[in-house]
């Protein structure tokens, strides 16, 4: 920093001394003298540095010029004394100055510019000069050249920096109306829908703490300081006292002289302090200029010390102003000798300097490069193109250059990402983060205590979130302390109160550095906090109870046809059989000769009794044939129609049986969100205030809009306070309630509750991220650690561990066999076997009855006891070696009367058979003497 102050007498006599020296030198080398005037203010202190820069810039020019020599004439005025300023300018004009440099006050500079315009003397200024409200009048600024960056372009540079920093909201602290005018572009970069910009003015009261506390209570962490340089340090010192210089607060200082302030006591603050600088303090030009200043003052016995890093912007601009003016004089003097002229402000015959306008126009088109970088003017003499250094306060080096800005390329960072990352990682060493979270399996749970065990701190918890942050801390080398958010919520914005809750509020209140849990990255949350890259991807899906298997029914095979159809079929079966019997009795074609070989037989018979009719229709409906068929057209037509009917019924029954039995095993189910939206029987809901709820609230998709309308209007409410409550409601709902939740939590539940399942696919795609305050300097480093864990497979291992292994995981990992799922078990078709068994049993009973009936007939016909006939028939039936048997006379008396003609013709033959059989039956020996041909009957 500059040391020493202006020494009254010596400074005032310095112009006279220099004039004397220049006069002596001029007589020696023969250079033409070209006087130039300069007006400096007596305050602030750094005006002395500007004067030194001006004088020694003139001295350096004179050292190199061969044909002319600049003679500086300096005057001093007060910044508010416009009358004295006018008089000093007229004095300079009377002394024949060819240009007037300064002053730096807007009030006094305007008067100087007006007089110079009248006399056509170049007026060169080095301070901020705003554009008039009515616009710039070229005529009024015809003789003015300003080396200070043009106001609108400088404001645009600040706006670009804010946009690059992604500041969504910020507070401006200013101390004068001029300062607020400099931020015109910044105030215009926000639209009506953006977060509001807060503007606060400070007065002459040196206590800034109440203002800073108000800003802190508002939650604002981004502050722009548009105040005088002498106030900056004190304001930041008080900000530190009220905890406003923490790591999540960021400051941008608009003054181009911020680099001259000694921030030594604030270098170790955790906030980010950024400023702009017009010059490169490491360049050769500025080091050379500072060397000239120090050596020159040493020769004059006036101690002066200043480092290149602390040179004021105005001093550098005076150096460049002298340089560019000398260049214009040199170039124009080469074609026409430039001669000074003494001019008078009050003369009636006002004269103007003939070379002034030519010099100004030349300077406007001339491009130079000085301490402050490239110097290019527009048509109004404003410096419209320039370079700015973006500097940041660091712990080791003070202000350090991190980027540059120019009107063409905007912000361009000069440090590499590796340097940024290394700097952040270094700052993380031995730092303790407060990590906010909430209880929710498997991300964070209370650890199960053992007998007599006392748990405290991080040891109270376990889960995915804890192991995730623990892995990150080992990579980056920081410590952490887990804390639970009081309300247990994730974080949603209340549009009525305009406040956040849950984890987001905890971060906004600066009560935590990180928030780790199943916190979904959403657009709304991104406006309030920052997120790392996702450590887990997911989507919304449906939790629902698995289908309930119905009780097995032995007679399921009857289900494809309703009871009415079975009754109609039985009725049709009997009706067709009776009709066939009646028609066959009536139709002549169905009466036929029993002995076709005897053409002279006078008797015919009809085989279509009721039994044969029933047998024919039964064989048709069972898909089988019959050995006898009707002959008449009518009976054939009836039989054909019945066969057609039986074919259709049998085909339909067979086609629908397997499908029906398969479908019978489970009740009706849903398969997607569309199925839910189309029905109203099954209710469905989400966690109140979560990201899933926000998804349906803001969705433009018609299906999801209908679902949200249904959820919102449902009574009782379908919303829950947590995923666990939603899970329990699905279990108790008995497939009358579905729960929409994030797939990761759903997967965790279905691994432990085997009667629950996921329905359909994912409705959206999103991710879980680690949240932190906006513009947190650690976001890049933590994201890098998450990426490293992902590449090493540690994230997958963590998920497998907490989803499938810990806390009862892996219970429901059996994969059902899809082929077996469609098979019919004995429980479904066992009824067929029951019917078959009953049929066989009935047939067995009928066979026994037929056997006994036959035994009775034999006993009657053979005139033996029933017991003897039964024993004889049983012995014959059990003798499997016998393959033939004599035919018994089984015709009853009623049958014989109906068929008298047949019996008369065979009576003699039957009589002999009966007589022989009766003799054999009566003989006990004949019952026991069996041969290979069966019973030993007497044959006559």
UniProtKB/TrEMBL annotation:
This is Uncharacterized protein. Residues 1-30 form the signal peptide. It is found in: Cell membrane; Postsynaptic cell membrane. Residues 442-509 form the Ionotropic glutamate receptor L-glutamate and glycine-binding domain. Residues 891-920 are annotated as: Disordered. It comes from the Eukaryota. Pfam families: ANF_receptor, Lig_chan, Lig_chan-Glu_bd. It is a multi-pass membrane protein. Belongs to the glutamate-gated ion channel (TC 1.A.10.1) family. Its main location: membrane. The chain crosses the membrane at residues 565-584, 641-661, 829-853. InterPro entries: ANF_lig-bd_rcpt, Glu/Gly-bd, Iono_Glu_rcpt_met, Ionotropic_Glu_rcpt, Iontro_rcpt_C, Peripla_BP_I. Keywords: Cell membrane, Glycoprotein, Ion channel, Ion transport, Ligand-gated ion channel, Membrane, Postsynaptic cell membrane, Receptor, Signal, Synapse, Transmembrane, Transmembrane helix, Transport. Residues 432-805 form the Ionotropic glutamate receptor C-terminal domain.
């Amino acid at each position: 920093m500059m040391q020493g102050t202006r020494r009254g007498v010596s400074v005032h006599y310095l112009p006279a001394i220099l004039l004397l020296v220049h006069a002596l030198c001029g007589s020696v080398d023969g250079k033409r003298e070209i006087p130039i005037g300069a007006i400096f203010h007596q305050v602030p202190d750094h005006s002395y540095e500007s004067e030194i820069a001006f004088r020694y810039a003139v001295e350096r020019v004179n050292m190199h010029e061969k044909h002319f020599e600049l003679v500086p004439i300096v005057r001093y005025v007060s910044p508010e004394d416009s009358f004295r300023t006018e008089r000093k300018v007229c004095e300079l004009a009377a002394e024949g100055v060819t240009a007037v440099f300064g002053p730096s006050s807007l009030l006094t500079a305007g008067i100087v510019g007006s007089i110079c315009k009248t006399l056509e003397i170049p007026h060169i200024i080095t301070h901020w000069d705003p554009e008039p409200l009515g616009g710039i009048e070229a005529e009024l600024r015809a003789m003015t050249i300003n080396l200070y960056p043009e106001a609108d372009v400088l404001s645009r540079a600040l706006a670009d920096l804010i946009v690059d920093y992604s500041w969504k909201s910020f507070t401006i602290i200013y101390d004068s109306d001029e300062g607020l005018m400099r931020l015109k572009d910044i105030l215009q970069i926000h639209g009506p829908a953006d977060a509001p910009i807060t503007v606060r003015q400070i007065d002459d009261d040196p206590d800034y703490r109440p203002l800073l506390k108000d800003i802190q209570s508002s939650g604002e962490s981004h502050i722009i300081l548009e105040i005088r340089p002498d106030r900056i340090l004190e304001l930041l010192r008080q900000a530190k006292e009220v905890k406003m210089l923490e790591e999540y607060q960021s400051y941008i200082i608009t003054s181009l002289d911020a680099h001259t302030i000694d921030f030594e006591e604030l270098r170790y603050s955790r906030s980010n302090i950024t400023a702009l600088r017009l010059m490169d303090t490491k360049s050769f030009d500025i080091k050379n200029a500072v060397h000239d200043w120090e050596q020159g003052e040493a020769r004059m016995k006036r101690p002066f010390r200043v480092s290149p890093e602390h040179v004021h912007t105005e001093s550098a601009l005076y150096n460049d102003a002298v340089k560019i003016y000398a260049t214009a004089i040199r170039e124009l003097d080469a074609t026409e000798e430039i001669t000074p002229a003494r001019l008078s402000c009050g003369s009636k015959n006002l004269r103007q300097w003939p070379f002034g306008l030519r010099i100004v126009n030349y300077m406007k088109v001339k491009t130079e490069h000085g301490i402050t970088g490239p110097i290019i003017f527009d048509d109004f003499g404003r410096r419209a193109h320039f370079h700015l250094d973006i500097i940041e306060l660091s712990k080791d080096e003070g202000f350090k250059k991190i980027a540059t800005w120019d009107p063409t390329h905007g912000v361009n960072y000069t440090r590499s990402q590796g340097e940024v990352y290394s700097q952040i990682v270094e700052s993380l060493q031995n730092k303790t983060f407060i990590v906010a979270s909430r209880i929710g399996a498997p991300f964070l749970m209370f650890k199960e205590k053992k007998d007599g065990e006392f748990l405290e701190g991080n040891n109270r918890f376990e889960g995915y979130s804890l192991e995730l942050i623990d892995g990150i801390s080992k990579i980056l080398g920081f410590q952490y302390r887990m804390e639970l958010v009081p309300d247990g919520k994730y974080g949603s914005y209340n549009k009525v109160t305009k406040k956040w809750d849950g984890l987001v509020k905890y971060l906004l209140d600066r009560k935590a550095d990180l928030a780790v849990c199943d916190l979904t990255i959403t657009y709304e949350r991104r406006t309030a906090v920052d997120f790392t890259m996702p450590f887990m991807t997911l989507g919304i899906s449906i939790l629902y109870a698995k289908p309930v298997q119905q009780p097995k029914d032995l007679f399921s095979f009857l289900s494809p046809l309703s009871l009415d159809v079975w009754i109609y079929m039985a009725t049709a079966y009997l009706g067709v059989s009776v009709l066939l019997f009646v028609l066959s009795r009536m139709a002549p074609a169905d009466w036929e000769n029993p002995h076709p070989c005897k053409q002279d037989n006078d008797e015919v018979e009809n085989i279509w009794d009721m039994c044969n009719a029933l047998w024919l229709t039964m064989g048709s409906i069972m898909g089988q044939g019959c050995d006898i068929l009707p002959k008449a057209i009518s009976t054939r037509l009836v039989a054909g129609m019945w066969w057609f009917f039986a074919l259709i019924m049998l085909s339909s029954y067979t086609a629908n049986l397997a499908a029906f039995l398969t479908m019978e095993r489970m009740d009706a189910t849903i398969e997607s969100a569309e199925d839910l939206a189309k029905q109203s029987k099954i209710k469905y809901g989400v966690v109140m205030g979560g990201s899933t709820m926000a998804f349906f609230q803001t969705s433009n998709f018609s299906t999801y809009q209908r679902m949200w309308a249904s959820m919102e209007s449902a009574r009782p409410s379908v919303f829950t306070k947590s995923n666990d409550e939603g899970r329990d409601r699905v279990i108790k709902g008995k497939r009358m309630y579905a729960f929409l939740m994030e797939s990761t939590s759903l997967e965790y539940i279905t691994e432990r509750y085997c009667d629950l399942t996921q329905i359909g696919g994912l409705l959206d795609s999103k991710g879980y991220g680690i949240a932190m305050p906006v513009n947190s300097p650690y976001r890049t480093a933590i994201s890098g650690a998450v990426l490293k864990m992902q590449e090493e497979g540690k994230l997958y291992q963590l998920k497998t561990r907490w989803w499938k292994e810990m806390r009862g995981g892996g219970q429901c990992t059996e994969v059902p066999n899809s082929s077996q799922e469609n098979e019919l078990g004995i429980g479904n078709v066992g009824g067929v076997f029951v019917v078959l068994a009953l049929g066989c049993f009935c047939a067995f009973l009928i066979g026994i009855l037929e056997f006994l009936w036959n035994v009775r007939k034999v006993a009657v016909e053979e005139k033996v006891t029933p017991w003897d006939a039964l024993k004889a028939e049983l012995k014959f039936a059990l003798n499997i070696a016998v393959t033939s048997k004599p035919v018994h006379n089984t015709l009853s008396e009623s049958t014989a009367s109906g068929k008298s003609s047949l019996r008369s013709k065979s009576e003699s033959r039957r009589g002999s058979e009966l007589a022989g059989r009766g003799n054999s039956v009566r003989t006990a020996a004949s019952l026991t003497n069996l041969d290979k041909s069966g019973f030993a009957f007497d044959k006559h």
